[in-house]
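Q: Predict the bound structure with iron/sulfur cluster.
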Amino acid sequence: MPKVIIDGQEIEVAAGTTIIQAADKLGISIPRYCYHDALPVSGNCRICMVEVEKQPKLQIACYTPVADGMVVKTNSPKVLDVRKTVLEFLLVNHPVDCPVCDQAGECKLQDYYMEHGQYNSRLVDVKVKKEKKAVQIGPTVMLDQERCILCTRCVRFTNTITKTNELGVFERGDHSQLDVYPGKQLDNPYAANVVDICPVGALTDKDFRFKCRVWYLAKTKSVCPGCSRGCNITVEWDKMRPHHFKKARVMRLKPRLNPDVNNYWICDAGRYNYRFIDENRITTPQLKDDLITWEQAIETVVKAIKSTKTDRIGVIASAQLTNEDLFVVGKLFKETLKVANVDYRVGQQPGNSDDFLIKADKNPNTAGAAAILGVPALSAEEIVQKAKRGEIDVLYVFGQDLVKLFGKDVVAEVVKKVKLLVYQGSNINETCSYAHLNLPSAVYAEKEGTFTNCQQKVQRIWPAFVPLGESRLDWVILSMIAEKMGTAFKYKNTQDIFKDIAATVDGFSEMTYEKLNDQGLILNKKL
Amino acid sequence: MDNPIEKRRLELEKYFDAKSPFALLRVAQMKRAWKHKNRRELTWWENTYIPTVVTGIHLTSKHFFHNLNLHILHLFGLCKDQKAAVTYQYPEQPRPLSARTRTRHRLTKREDGSPRCVACMMCETVCPARCIEITAGEHPDPNIEKFPQKFVLDLGKCVYCGFCVEVCPEDAIRMDTGKLNTAEYSRESMIYDKKRLMDE
Ligand code: SF4
Ligand code: SF4
Ligand code: SF4
Ligand code: SF4
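A: Predicted complex:
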């Protein structure tokens, strides 16, 4: 294995590794535009030039493989001079309209120019104007040809990752411009990823356009709840300026690197699946038409449960809940109350899927629910049928839209037969209008916990902000019920619950939040 | 132990238990004691207040007679090079301002009367009083792209620091209206929107 010395630090890497990869391993960041870890090398931007001893010319770090005994300098005066020149060249036809550019603040042109800029412009010529300024090239992406530096990252993405080949570079010389092929649209299910990999503001997000500036955003690590793949994401939310964008908190979701799960990518459906966090929420407990307090709500539930025999209670949980919430569901209903009718499997209607990221199962935690609640005695369908026959008095539903699943008539029938239909969920749907009691619960972005994805990987989510209005975390609501029933759980936070899960549920043993960290661990039955 | 700050810290620690419920009270007490310790005691003669009263009267009369005499001399065309204090009949007679005084803001306009501002939110970001609120919108002209749908400046909060003017890349906001008398009957009317900032 070749040994190289980069900026005085020695490292041994596998043969065929390029200089830029070796430097990344050492934590030395060489500037780059066209190079991207997950894409084939193109080597056209020339900003990654480094000095290699005994070679007369500078080499591009992204394409030069290391050789044994190589001595590389990434910060010599010659290298710095080239960076300055390359930047000057890239900016020759650049409009520099940073004030109106959504990329400003996370733009690599800005970043590198701050470090290596040619601050006294020598430009005398008129800039070559490109045709398209702010045009939509697909349902999610805006193109500004003037800002493009022709790094071809986006082209290589559509060629190699999605294999849809929508984008290309047309014309020659300083008339070159990036565009979609005639008659095509950038409309593949992963299209918006080109926005993330575009190092400048040439491709921007239609959805995020002008909503707020990127430096206002706070970032919280999370996991996409859109399907059982569980792509790692960051929730980016407006912390200080609530007046932006209709007072919504979440401004956008961005994929987060996890090589085992989603690498750098995320599907568009997941990326834009955030509006429910701020819109259409249940914010106050509601009994029929009256808004009530939490004390009254809990009292109603407890009174109903206490006066009902356990085999006449039905619980329909959800694989949208975190492992911690599901564990508390199991603890309250299965262990403490000995209810047999507990199921979570209703939401699993097959949706679209592909062989890249998107999974048919649209719940993030089906594997976790199976591990924690086990195989239920009765399926949710049977529980509902039982309720329809009048054999259930208290039906407790977690976030499942029964109307969508079983139809209006069935639910109307069920509501007539049961004494209390409790709907504990975050968003308003048709089932809410049928339920006797609505309990507002938190959405994933407000929760701390874990999801188990389709690869059996247990992954953490972090709370970005407090639950909206009076809504509360699912496990907190259940703990309040338990306390009122006289069997308090003594959980202070989700960490306590996870400790309990690790101690009692197979496969979770020896896991802790610290060990899961932000990349997750595989659920291992024999760990 | 000659460092006075270190000395004070040690002294405070003697009394101060951060966990005690009266911690804050204790800090306040210590501060007062510290101030008190370093204050000079007044002498008997000073305690009669006579010297202070006499000094005060002397100072006031000095200014009064100085200005009075100068104004009389000015009447006869003498000592014109020495300035005497004047009284402006504000608000009928406004005091002249230097051209660089930071006064109430205005939004500058393009030739067609629309605001020059491109809603880059630089001023919103830099404003230390957080008194600017901008909502950006899509401009029909792709060469302008972005414009402020809403531009709200709360003069009730503004500290007139001028950072917003300094930071604006488009020369879209200026503090050169010469208006300093922003007095209103309610807090709401101190909040200026785009229209008021452009036209008033
Ligand atoms: S791409 Fe970067 S440098 Fe160019 S206008 Fe946008 S923020 Fe400015
Ligand atoms: S649009 Fe962006 S990613 Fe695509 S070639 Fe231009 S600069 Fe590179
Ligand atoms: S003058 Fe200062 S405080 Fe007032 S709006 Fe401008 S930046 Fe804000
Ligand atoms: S800094 Fe200037 S251009 Fe930018 S938002 Fe403020 S007034 Fe408008």
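A: Chain A has three domains: 3-90, 98-205, 286-522.
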